[in-house]
Amino acid sequence: MHKITTAICININSYFKYIILRDNNFIILFILILIRYYDTKIIPSELNNYSPTNTYYKISKAIARS
To answer: How many domains does the chain have?
Structure first.
């Protein structure tokens, strides 16, 4: 099976987040983008002091370990 490791750089409020996806899991990427966008809209304080939410952190770490 052809495996491709894609490094995608996402710029959110001047913060660069690097998400590494293996086996072209673009659906997971879109889910992460939606979670990040949703969290920034619900929690405006993160725009000034960025800290990833537990959900985003756990999913991103899970992808990094895979």
So the answer is: 1
